[in-house]
Every structure is written in C-alpha cells, then in structure tokens.
C-alpha cells in the first residue's frame, strides 16, 4: 500500500501503517518515482513523499483503509495505491545482489556469504542487520573513503551515531588503536557489538548510549554520519570531541544543506572543500 503525503507527516503515517498490520514500512521520494500520476486533463498537487507499507497477502485491506480513514492526518481523505507483489524469498533475493565493495585504496566491506576479493586488503565483514550502515549509501561511502585516506595508526576514533558500527570497525582495521561508538538507539549498540566481534576488534571498541558516555571524551578523529539537522544542533557538543589538530568528518548531509552545516563548524575547524556523491556530501576539517 502506497500513501502519498509530505515529508513532515511521513513518519507518523508510517507508524499508522505498522499499527494496522504492515510488516515493513519504507519512504520514497515521490519526485523520483511518481506513482500517483493525474488522469488526463487533471491537475493535482501531490506531496513529496510516498509511504509504502508491505502487508501479508491475507490482510483484509478494506478494513485497513477504513481504519486509516479515522487517523487524524487522513480523515479528510487520502490518496493511496494498492499493488500485489510477487511472493519471493526476499531475503535471499537481496543477499544475491549484495556484493563486496571497495572504498579508497585499501578498504573492502564484505558480506559474510561472499568470498573476500583481496585477502591482502583491509576487509571488514559486515552483514546488514538492525542498524543503519552497510556502505551502500553514499554518505557511508564518503566516510569510509575519507577514513581510508587518513593515517589512523595508533589513533583514537569516535564514531558519533555509530549505527551498525561500520565506521568505527573500519577505523580499527585501518590501524586505529581504539574506537568509541555512540548512538541513541540500543539496537545500534547491539549491532555494533555483534559486528565488532565478527571482525575481531571488540576488545578495542567501547560503545555507549549518550547518557552513559564518559565525561571529557576526546579523540584524534571524530566522524558523525547522521543528518544535517542534528549536526547543526549538536555542533557545540561534537566540536569539542576532536583534540586540537584532530580530524572531523561529517556526513548524512544533502549537498543543498552543506552551507548551513559548514557555518556551524567553521569557527572551530579549518574546513576542506566539500566532497559530493549522488547529491549527498561530506564535510571534513581540522580543529584549530
């Protein structure tokens, strides 16, 4: 079931679909792949986001629609589309299309069910799970490439918003002596812990929820791959984490948001030119 809405309402409607039996919910930019095209001669103003709920085939969809019509955001009527999807082993289908990926000169991210392409490279074994971060998203790729280009030998690295732990684990395998992962989601902490164990670096990775992290944390390298809004809001907190002369890497930022995020950090850091990949960008710099 696809519902057209605005970005501001998407999360709440996603929750509504879940409450009505959806086994998964995803969001899609409706400008990139419009599914609510007007009829000939018809003009409509559509929202910018499609909320997509996947339901079991046995679900009685008229009851779902009736329930959704009572939702405060939808009680004035809403635009939806229902499609049947072929029954497949979707997990196997996805696994067949997930391949090892190279970042920079030395670093590979490899799923456990694939052969390692180069046994002499720096290989991070990472299976997708509960938390964000497999290397497939441009922001993760930008951060991994940046880490590969740094000399991390003996350094301490903070992964702020660690998700799957991919950046912290990659830093450790690239030579960092110690890494610290921080995330607001307990599932991310668990995913990072599991992935660190799989890569044999759990003894060098410390993981914290924000209220658990030690006071006066600092590191030679700090990377934060989250979102532009939190990066701006948390700039005072993030800016004090790198030591003087330490490196900062920020991503999760659309290219159009780079200016406002850079402004939040330019007084404390000497910033590099912004790096872009597929409309996303990375901001890096050295603490003054």
List the helices and strands and how they pair.
Blueprint: E1 2-5, H1 7-19, E2 24-29, E3 49-54, H2 61-68, E4 80-81, H3 90-96, E5 101-103, E6 107-110, E7 122-125, H4 138-148, E8 156-160, H5 166-173, E9 178-182, H6 186-198, E10 205-208, E11 219-225, H7 228-233, H8 235-239, E12 242-254, H9 258-265, E13 269-271, E14 275-277, E15 280-287
Parallel strand pairs: 6-7, 8-9, 8-11, 9-10, 11-12
Antiparallel strand pairs: 1-3, 1-4, 2-3, 5-6, 12-15, 13-15, 14-15
Helix pairs in contact: 4-5
Describe the 3D structure:
With 288 residues, this protein is an alpha/beta fold. The chain has 2 domains: 2-81, no CATH class; 95-287, Vaccinia Virus protein VP39 (Rossmann fold, 3-Layer(aba) Sandwich). Helix content is 27%, strand content 27%. Strand 9 (178-182), helix 6 (186-198) and strand 10 form a beta-alpha-beta unit. Helix 4 packs parallel to helix 5 (166-173). The termini are far apart. The mean pLDDT is 87.
Total beta strands = 15
Query: What is the name of the CATH architecture of the largest domain?
Result: 3-Layer(aba) Sandwich
State the helicity in percent bands. Answer: 25-40%
What count of structural domains? 2
CATH homologous superfamily annotation of the largest domain: Vaccinia Virus protein VP39
Q: Estimate the strand proportion.
A: 25-35%
* Cα shape: globular
Specify the CATH class of the largest domain.
Alpha Beta
Determine the number of helices (DSSP H or I, runs of at least 4 residues).
9
Radius of gyration: 21 Å
Please state the oligomeric state of the protein chains shown.
single chain
Q: Which structural class matches the secondary elements?
A: alpha/beta
CATH topology of the largest domain: Rossmann fold
Whole-Å distance between the termini? 51 Å
